[in-house]
Every structure is written in C-alpha cells, then in structure tokens.
Task: inverse folding
C-alpha cells in the first residue's frame, strides 16, 4: 500500500494589511474654504434660525382661534391621519389640553390650556 502524503501546513495569510506609514510622516490637512473663514470672521453674519419641528408646527396650528382639522394637520406635516392622532395623544400626555369638536365630517381640534400656561 502506498503511503498517503501528509499535508504540509500552509502558513496563514493575514486578512488585513497594515498601512505602510512611518510615524514621522504627517498627512497634509486641508485648509478651510475661504467662505467659511470669511463667515467666521464677519461679526455681522446672520445665523440661521434653528430647525422648526413638526410638533411645534402642530402646537401652533392648534393654538389658532379656529383650531385645526385633521386634514389641515396632515397637509402641514405630511403625516398620515393615524400619525396626527398619535401626535395629538402625545401632546395630551405632555399636559396640553386639547378640545375636540365635530363639524360635519371633519373633526376640529383646539389647544385650550397648556401645562406651562397653567403654572403661571
């Protein structure tokens, strides 16, 4: 019987190689764009207003004297009806008193008293 050849162990190859970088080498850093430098240096630069949230938009629409319908809240936020109703529920849980009135087929919502107003 012929002898079976024994498999010679193969050296394992590294899966990732280290970058060939010397510690005394530095990478160049890009200079900031001239627009950023001049904007930072100008004292009369206008800073944009912070981003307005959809929850703040809903609160403002509900605070109007005539309130807001589900359809108007959906149009303003781009949300579906169930998301608008969930947001209204969240506002109620946070202390906003919301009254509801049915006008024809539409439901009209109004914010009457908020938690911050009732503390003053």
Result:
């Amino acid at each position: 019987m012929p002898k079976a050849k024994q498999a010679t162990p193969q050296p394992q190859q590294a899966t990732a190689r280290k970058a060939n970088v010397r510690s005394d080498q530095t990478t160049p850093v890009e200079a900031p764009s001239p627009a950023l430098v001049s904007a930072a240096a100008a004292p009369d630069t206008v800073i944009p207003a912070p981003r307005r949230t959809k929850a703040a938009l809903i609160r403002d629409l509900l605070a109007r004297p005539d309130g807001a319908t589900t359809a108007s809240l959906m149009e303003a936020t781009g949300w579906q009806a169930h998301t608008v109703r969930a947001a209204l529920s969240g506002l109620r849980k946070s202390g906003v008193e919301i009254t509801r009135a049915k006008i024809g087929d539409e439901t009209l919502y109004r914010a009457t008293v908020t938690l911050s107003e009732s503390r003053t």
The helical segments are 34-41, 54-63, 70-77, 81-93, 115-119. The first helix runs from residue 34 to 41. Strands lie at 68-69, 97-103, 106-113.
